[in-house]
Design a protein that fits this description.
- By secondary structure, the protein is mostly helical.
- It has 3 domains: 70 residues, no CATH class; 133 residues, no CATH class; 262 residues, GLE1-like (Serine Threonine Protein Phosphatase 5, Tetratricopeptide repeat, Alpha Horseshoe).
- It is built from 20 helices and 2 strands.
- The chain has a two-stranded antiparallel ribbon.
- Helix 3 runs parallel beside helix 5, helix 4 packs antiparallel against helix 5 and helix 5 runs antiparallel to helix 6.
- The longest helix has 123 residues.
- The protein is elongated.
């Protein structure tokens, strides 16, 4: 390349022209290209060769880059303005290209930034959602924890309230129990006073005491008030007011009884005064007759005759005035039995036998008196048409468990016993018509005791007469009730003696009175089963009516004159039912008794009886005396059955 010298004023040149001027000045020293994007960076260690290396790197970069290649301008000796213009155009194009590249790079960066911003926004949105979900989850967990805490608190509160309620209920029950006990005591007092008033009213001569209807009205009002009180107590409303009312009713009943007694005393005093006046008038008449006698003997006959007649008319009128209320009450009763010692027996027995018969007669008379007292006491309840529904409910409450008594299991027998005992003891019993209790009426308990005893005896007439084994579960319940309610035992004996008078071996009846041997046999079988059957173990081993009564009956009955069929039937049923127990208890003494009956009683029995019962009785005696024992009856209950 030739050297080019060119002198230009710097102040007249433009910046790119200055650059080209410099390039022209150094161009003789440069043999290769030294600028370009593909040229390597100059090195400090080799400053001399730096332009060459830079040029090579630039060549390599140009070769690898698809960008616009600027041709190398070779210096010339003359200034080629066209070349310079082309170079400048190329430079401008390069600048535009670079600007375009930078714009693309800027756009790419903007796009990348936009993508990054979108990603960041989505990330922030996802993070926000996650945070919201976490917050919501935390809120749900907190709400659940709060709900569980509230639930636990509610359960604890309910448990606490239940404990408080149970304590209140227990206290209420204790208060009710105490109130019930108090009312029950008042009820028994009211019932006894009611019976006393009823007896007093029965003994009143209504023609002499005109205010009897008023007393009946007052008595009925008091009974209705007490029935209302017992009905109110059934609804668990028993408190101090009810106790006060019960006490007031008892006091009113006392006042009524006292008023009746005062009127009775006034009546008796009035009758006594009338009697004394009549006696005084009679004495005056006798004195006048005596004076007349002293004057005229003939007038004695005329005066004495009417005086005697008048005295005979006065005497019968004084008899009712001297009768006590108890005596008048006895006139309205019909005896259950009329126990009396037969003349033949008295004449052939020793004084000790008379004493024994006297004791037996006293025992049977006490049973009869107790029974008659209860029967007379419940007459107002039995005759009251308004209490018909109540009587029917009581009968239903007793008949249902009583008819279901059997030895199917200990639990079954226990259930029937508890239902009967609890009802007789005052516990209300639910029925289809509602609740019924013996305390619903002042005479309810006595009425139900009489009814229960009668129904048990009826079991002997019906079920036991057809099924002998049924006697033992029925007898076991009877003994258990007898131990806990002695009144029931007396009434049971009273109905036994009423339905089968031969079980009171103090007198005989005619043959015509025994028209049903099967019925008599069933009652006797039940009576014998009661004497050898134990009750519940919980009531103790003591027996209220043991084998000693069977021994006494056999001895007393064998002393009576035998009757056809019935005498052999009763002895046969007694020995078949309790002969095994008597043989085991009395041993040789019982064998001696059987020998006595066979030797003495059979001789008299053969003369009047030739039927089947006598034959069966003789066979039983023969087997017993030969085998030295009587077979144990089937169906007996062991001592530990229930």
């Amino acid at each position: 390349m030739s050297e080019v010298s060119c002198e230009l004023e710097v102040g007249d040149l433009k910046p790119h022209e200055i650059t080209f001027q410099h390039a022209i000045e150094i161009s003789p020293l440069i043999k290769e290209r030294t600028i370009g994007p593909d040229m390597p960076e100059p090195r400090d260690e080799e400053p001399e060769s730096a332009p060459i290396i830079c040029q090579k790197s630039r060549v390599q970069k140009r070769e690898s880059s698809p960008k616009l290649i600027i041709p190398v301008l070779k210096p010339s000796s003359s200034l080629d303005y066209e070349l310079v213009s082309a170079t400048m155009i190329l430079r401008d194009a390069e600048e535009k290209r670079k600007k375009h590249v930078r714009q693309q790079m800027h756009n790419m960066q903007e796009k990348q930034l936009a993508v990054l911003r979108d990603n960041a926004a989505r990330l922030r949105e996802q993070q926000g959602k996650q945070v919201q979900e976490l917050i919501a989850e935390k809120q749900r967990s907190d709400a659940q924890i709060i709900q569980e805490a509230e639930k636990q608190t509610m359960l604890e509160l309910q448990e606490y309230e239940q404990q408080i309620s149970s304590i209140r209920l227990q206290a209420k029950r204790q208060l009710q129990l105490f109130s019930f006990q108090c009312v029950a005591k008042y009820h028994s007092v009211f019932r006894s006073k009611y019976e006393a008033v009823a007896k007093a009213l029965i003994s009143i001569d209504k023609q002499a005491l005109l205010s009897c209807s008023d007393y009946n009205r007052q008595l009925k009002e008091l009974v209705e008030l007490f029935e209302t009180l017992t009905t109110k107590i059934k609804t668990d409303e028993c408190g101090a007011a009810e106790l006060k009312l019960a006490d007031s009713l008892c006091n009113k009943m006392d006042g009524l009884y006292a008023t009746i007694n005062e009127d009775l005393e006034k009546l008796v005093k009035q009758q006594e005064h009338t009697q004394r006046e009549e006696q005084r008038k009679a004495e005056e008449q006798v004195l006048a007759a005596a004076l007349t006698l002293s004057q005229t003997p003939q007038a004695l006959v005329e005066t004495t005759a009417p005086t005697t007649t008048e005295h005979s008319q006065v005497a019968p009128q004084t008899v009712p005035a001297q009768q006590t209320p108890e005596t008048q009450l006895q006139q309205h009763t019909q005896p259950l039995t009329q126990p009396s010692v037969p003349t033949e027996q008295v004449s052939h027995t020793a004084p000790t036998a008379n004493q024994e018969n006297s004791v037996a007669q006293k025992f049977y008379q006490e049973i009869y008196s107790f029974y008659q007292e209860k029967v007379d006491g419940v007459k107002p309840l039995q005759s009251d048409e308004n209490m018909k529904k109540y009587r029917f409910a009581c009968q239903k409450a007793i008949n249902i468990p009583l008819n279901a008594i059997s030895a199917v299991s200990a639990q079954h027998l226990q259930d029937k016993f508890e239902r009967i005992f609890n009802f007789l003891n005052g516990q209300p019993l639910k029925t289809a018509e509602g609740q019924v209790s013996v305390n619903d009426h002042p005479l309810g308990r006595n009425y139900c005791l009489l009814l229960t005893a009668k129904r048990f005896v009826n079991q002997g007439e019906t079920a036991i007469s057809s099924n002998p084994q049924a006697a033992f579960p029925v007898a076991s319940v009877v003994v258990s009730l007898w131990k806990l309610i002695p009144e029931f035992g007396k009434l049971f004996l009273a109905y036994i003696f009423k339905e089968s008078p031969s079980l009171v071996p103090l007198r005989s009846k005619s043959v015509e009175e025994y028209n049903d041997l099967k019925r008599q046999a069933g009652i006797t079988r039940l009576y014998a089963a009661v004497m050898i059957t134990n009750g519940r173990r919980a009531d103790g081993p003591d027996h209220p009516y043991g084998l000693e009564h069977a021994w006494r009956w056999l001895v007393d009955y064998s002393n009576l004159e035998p009757l056809p069929d019935i005498s052999a039937t009763l002895i046969l049923e007694m020995l078949q039912t309790l002969g095994f127990a008597m043989c085991r208890t009395y041993g040789k003494q019982f064998s001696k008794l059987l020998l006595y009956i066979q030797r003495d009683y059979f001789a008299r029995l053969v003369q009047v009886d030739e039927g089947g019962p006598r034959t069966r009785l003789e066979m039983l005696f023969m087997n017993c005396l030969n085998q030295k024992q009587i077979p144990e009856p089937q169906g007996t209950l062991g001592p530990s059955f229930w």
